[in-house]
Write the C-alpha cells for this entry.
Amino acid sequence: MTTPPPPPSSPSQPPPPPPGAIAQPSPSQLQPIPADALVVVDRVSKFFGDIVAVSDVTFAVSPGVTALLGPNGAGKSTVLRMMCGLALPSSGTVSVMGQSPRSNPEIAAEIGLAPQQESVFGHLTALQFVRASAELQGVANADAEARRVLQLVELDANDQRFLPTYSKGMRQRVKLAQAIVHNPRVILLDEPLSGLDPRQRVHMVELFHHLASQGRAVIVSSHVLEEVQRFGSNVVVITNGRLAAQGDFREIRALMDDRPRQVKVRTDRPRSLAAALVKQLHVTSVQLSGSDIRVDTTDIAAFSRAVAPVSQRCGARLFEVRPLDEDLESVFRYLVSA
C-alpha cells in the first residue's frame, strides 16, 4: 500500500509530541490488526487547507462497543466522517470490512451513521423519516422495520408531530433509529447521548450493547468521561487530532487518576485545616484564599479518604470538597503531557 505524501508543512501543523507524551507508535511498532476487525484506520490524516484536523491516526475496531473519546474539537467527528466515506482522508486509508466505504456502495450500505448535527427534515414525522431511510437502503418491508426500530428507541411510530417539534433527546433517538433501520454491521454514533435524560441514557447504552452482541461494531463518540465508563472497556482517545491512547478504559482511567490533582476545600477554619492537611504525605502544597483552600495532591483517592477525619480532628466544618481539574481537557493535557 502506498501512502500519498503529506501536504507541505505550515505554521499550523501540530508539533511533535513533547518528551514523555504517550505518542502513537510508528508503523513498524503497530500491533497486528485483529482478525475480526471490522474497521481499520491506517495512518490517516485530514487537512482543511492549512488546518490539520487529524494527524497520522491508526487504530482498529472489532465487534463490540468502542468509545471514541476526546474533548470538543479533538477531531472525533472528522474521523467518523472518514469511517463512513463522507470525507476522504488527505493521507492514509480507512477500510470497513476490508473495503473502502468511499468507493464501494455495498460497503457503505453496511454502515449506519447518527451525526451530531441537529438538522432534520421539517415536513416529516419520525415514521416518515425513518421509513424513507429504510427505503433508500433497499430494506424490504420498510414500514414495518421503521416501526420496529422506533419502538427500540422508545418512540411512538404513530406520533403525527413533525420532527422540529420534538425535543433534542427525541431527535437524537430518531437519528439513532434511522442509523440502524437497515441492520448495518458498523454503527457510528456522534455524541448520541446529548440531550437525553438519565433514564433514556441508561436505555440507550443498553441498546448499544444489545446491537454489539449481534456481532456489530458500535462506535460511540463522546467528550464526557463518565459516559464512557458505561459503554464498555474498549476506548480510543483522540486529542488535538492525534491518537493519545487506545485500549482498555480501566487502564487508561487509572493512568489519568494517577496524575497530580488540585482540590478546592471550603471550610469555616481554613488556617487550621490547611495546617493539618499539609502534613499528609500525599499533599504537596496548600494555598489559602479566604475560606477556601486549594490543595495539590498526588493521590486523589487517599486525599478523599483523609479530608473528613482530618477536618474532624481540627474542629473544622467542611462546606465543599471539589476537584478543580476534573474537566476532560485537563485530563487529556496530562495524558499527552501537553
In short: Confidence is low (pLDDT under 50) at residues 6-30. The first strand starts at residue 39 and ends at 48.
